[in-house]
Amino acid sequence: MKGHHRRRFTWTGALVAALIGCGGGSGSPKPDGGAAGIGGAAGAGAAGSDGGAPTAHLVQAHSGSLELSPTGKQLFVVHPDADSVSVVDLASRTVTHDVLLAAARPAADATGHYAPAVGPRALAHDSTGSTLYASGQWSGAVYAIDVASGSFTQSATICSEPIGVLVSADDANVFVACAQDDEIVELAAHDLSVVARVPCPRKPWALAWAADGKTLLATHLLGPGVSALATQPLALNTTWTLADGPSSNDQTEPHGPVRGIYDAAIRPGSSELWVAHIMLGIDTPQPALDFQSTVFPALSILDSSGNQSARLSVQANPGDGQAFGDVVSGPRAIAFSDDGGLVFVADTDSEDVLAIDTTARVERQIVRPLPGHLPEGIVWADGELYVQERNTEDIAAFKVARSGSALTITADGTPIPTLASDPMPPTLRLGQKLFYSANSDDVPLTQNHWDSRRVARGHEP
To answer: Is the peptide bond before 369 cis (omega within 30 degrees of 0)?
Structure first.
């Protein structure tokens, strides 16, 4: 299984048609537990009814800004600052399609104001990888993109600030997290018409399929945690609250309300839900306030009932489990290895990737520095990691090798450019980097990779 942990299935075309024809609904089948790779999927499926080559079917497990195609041959990436989505061929490491979603490329006006019209934030592919669905945060629309031709075939205005997007296993429905409207919306995939709207707690962000393959999970960026929704029909079942970090006499110990819940995904071969977030130590007054006592990175692990079994951060509080070995900032996106033994966390602010042993629940390695800036997406593909770097508009590639207890992560060539020409002016790109960076090895605006100013002030890039 490749990319974000995703559920992969290989069927003949006749079987797919039979399943859909039987009214399978919009729920997702159970995952395969990450036992096989995409190469196996493409070769292990039965031939189609016409005797042709089998088709790989793969259900994307959680929303993200970077995704891998079901065949493992393409990457799909959004460009929030360029109003486009790129299709990257991995064999040649080149962009085959750059799909503009706006009427024109964004450009600075006479006053220097730069305002993308669409702001694509996340995308999801259907089970064959033939159609992509992208959310436009600023346009309020969802876009359907034909991968083969590299053009968007239709769009529909859905809500205010759609972010997470995910497709049902039968490709019949698309689910959207509407951040400003505090609701989850179900769309008919064929025409993007609204099937259902369900209110939920504030600021829903990322979407993921639960381990049962039918329950839709939605994170809430500013808390309280993660909501679980039925999909047949769409309905809010419950919301699991992520517990605040416990107070302590030591203000540098991880504590405070949970915020910044950017991503969540089921660990392959288990029912564990891993959730990336931060905690804010809002009880620390000025002038004692500093970054090492204010913003703490964390991963919370929930069971299938939403009970928290562990929380990992820079120190281990009682009941939290183990801890990271390095200070990181701004955990944004996660990806699992095929067997679920490792989870990789892209840290946007400290600009690194943290590798964690999911059994021992301890850090195994950190990839620092990255070649570019502002990492926001990450996928796993057959021993390879791909990291979307938004500020430099490229994708960094790394080879991952395991031998016994040893783990090595090494750069695989130079980053893959994902835009032929960046429309954002260089001075604004520099400002973006400086404002969001907590990479103290690169720019000494913070210390020891503690979180940047924008998190403490509540800014969302």
So the answer is: yes
Query: Residue for token digits 């919301």?
Result: 239
**Number of continuous H segments (helices) and E segments (strands) in the chain:** 4, 31
Say how far apart CA 159 and CA 445 lie, in whole Å: 37
CB atoms within 10 A of CB 2: 27
List residues bridging with 297 in a β-sheet.
Answer: 278
- How many whole angstroms separate alpha carbon 331 and alpha carbon 260? 8
Q: Tell me which H or E stretch contains 344.
A: strand 342-347
What are the distances in angstroms from CA 412 to CA 396, 402, 416?
Answer: 8, 16, 10
Read off the DSSP letter of residue 307. -
Helices (H), 179-235: none
pLDDT tens digits for range 91-102: 999 999 999 999
* Distance, CA of 194 to CA of 271 (rounded, Å): 30
Edge-first strand order for the sheet with 162-167 is: 162-167, 173-178, 183-188, 194-199
CA geometry: angle 169, 376, 227, nearest 5 deg? 50
**279: how many CB neighbours lie within 10 A of its CB?**
24
Do the beta carbons of residue 58 and residue 72 sit within 8 Å? no
Q: For residue 245, what pLDDT band results from cuts at 50, 70 and 90?
A: confident
CA separation, residue 75 to residues 4, 65, 214, 328 (Å): 12, 10, 26, 26
- The residues facing 199 across adjacent strands are 183
What's the alpha-carbon Rg for the chain, to the nearest Å? Answer: 21
Model pLDDT, residue 324 = 72
Instruction: Compute the distance between CA of residue 132 and CA of residue 426 in angstroms, rounded to an integer.
Output: 30
Q: What is the reported pLDDT for 106?
A: 97
Q: Report the Cα–Cα distance between both ends of the chain, in Å, rounded.
A: 30
Q: Is 439 left (phi over 0), alpha (psi -120 to 50) or beta?
A: beta
**Strand order across the beta sheet in which 258-266 lies:** 258-266, 273-280, 295-302, 308-312
| Inter-CA distances, 436 with 25, 249, 269, 442, 457, Å | 42, 30, 35, 12, 11
Whole-model pTM: value is: 0.86
d(CA 415, CA 407): 22
Look at residues 347, 227, 364, 362 and name the one whose alpha carbon lies nearest to residue 296.
347
**How many whole angstroms separate alpha carbon 184 and alpha carbon 164?**
10
Tokens of 408: 């090595």
pLDDT in tens, 393-404: 999 999 999 988
Q: What is the pLDDT of residues 344-358, one digit of tens each?
A: 999 998 899 999 999
Q: How far apart are CA 140 and CA 379, in angstroms?
A: 26
